[in-house]
Amino acid sequence: MHIPRIVSDWKILFRPEKFGKYVNDHTVIRCKDGYRLIGITGFDGKPSNERYFVNAYGASLNEPFVEDCKSVDTGVLAWAPCVIEKDNVYYMFYGPSPTKLAVSVDLKEWMGYEIRLNGNPIFAVHRDHFVIKVGDEYLMYAAGLYNGRGCISVMTSENLTDWNFCGYALTSGKDAPLTPAWGAFESPFVVKRDDGYYLFVTYTDSGQKTYNDTMVFYSADAKNFGEYNGGNGGAEPITMLKSHAGEIIPSDGKYYITTCGWVTREIPNKGCVSIAELDF
Questions:
Q1: 8 Å CB contact between 183 and 170
Q2: Is residue 7 within 8 Å of 21, Cβ to Cβ?
Q3: Are 188 and 196 in contact (CB under 8 A)?
Q4: Helices (H) and strands (E) in the chain, counts
Q5: What is the β-pairing status of strands 34-42 and 22-31?
Q6: DSSP category for residue 99
Q7: Which of 20, 73, 101, 278 has its CA 20 to 30 A from that of 112?
Q8: How many C-beta atoms surround the C-beta of residue 44 within 10 A?
Q9: Exposed, middle or buried, 88 (CB in 10 Å: 0-12/13-18/19+)?
């Protein structure tokens, strides 16, 4: 196990201008000509008005990305996309509940596609999806509620369209310090490294004090990181990072982390997605 640390200053990766005034939860995916960034945006900062994603591209992580277009503009809420590629097709999972799926071959034009979630409790798969391939199966993590408190659920699939609920990767126990109605766990991201898995999860009640708090948990089992009780037994984060809804991006033998968020919160480079180097 290694302890991840942010080891550089934050610099601007992307600032929207045409389609919004900020970026919140987002996804960054490598493609044949560089990178694509797709994320929540809007003009007034109201989550109820976040109804499409801003789409930007960049040749590398060293220069600011260029705003390109809107994606998934269907007139309904569009939150927290995650994109994964399979057989030259890109699959985008997003929320809020019910989980939605769109597919694309160029990361610009997206078509809605049917997704089937089997066996998941009503509140378990709510928002902030993240998908990773582990062995021969895909795992999908999503923020939700368990016993009225925040949780990260996990589902499995072989084809990215049929998903089976298999339990809770992380739960919030009775002594956990934050209990907002929607659950305090947000924006899960899992990194496989060495013989284990690192779960990065923003833990916030959306107030200024906790907005940029991201906890990192470690486990040898990608489906089980335990129960968090705020230091009173159970799972303990191996570190706390200052990032909101961060993506972890490997590039040229290094890792990078992003941060973002509402312009009403104290974040680096307001209105932007910012990036810094991450060292394990």
A1: no
A2: no
A3: no
A4: 0, 23
A5: antiparallel
A6: P
A7: 20
A8: 10
A9: exposed
Tokens of 158: 């072989």
Distance of CA 274 to the CA centre of its chain: 15
**Segment holding 4, helix H or strand E:** none
Neighbours of 152 (CB within 10 A): 28
Residue count of the chain? 280
Beta-bridge partner residues of 202: 186, 214
Q: Is residue 177 reached through a cis peptide bond, with omega within 30 degrees of 0 on the bond before it?
A: no
Distance CA 4, CA 214 (A): 12
Question: Within a 13 Å sphere around the CA of 72, how many CA atoms are in the beta-carbon half?
Answer: 31
For residues 20 and 262, the answer to whether their CB atoms sit within 8 Å is no
Q: Are 189 and 28 in contact (CB under 8 A)?
A: no
pTM across the whole model: 0.97
Q: Which two tokens stand for residue 132?
A: 């990773």
pLDDT tens for the 280 residues of the chain, in order: 999 999 999 999 999 999 999 999 999 999 999 999 999 999 999 999 999 999 999 999 999 999 999 999 999 999 999 999 999 999 999 999 999 999 999 999 999 999 999 999 999 999 999 999 999 999 999 999 999 999 999 999 999 999 999 999 999 999 999 999 999 999 999 999 989 999 999 999 999 999 999 999 999 999 999 999 999 999 999 999 999 999 999 999 999 999 999 999 999 999 999 999 999 9
User: Looking at this protein, which amino acid is placed at residue 13?
Assistant: L
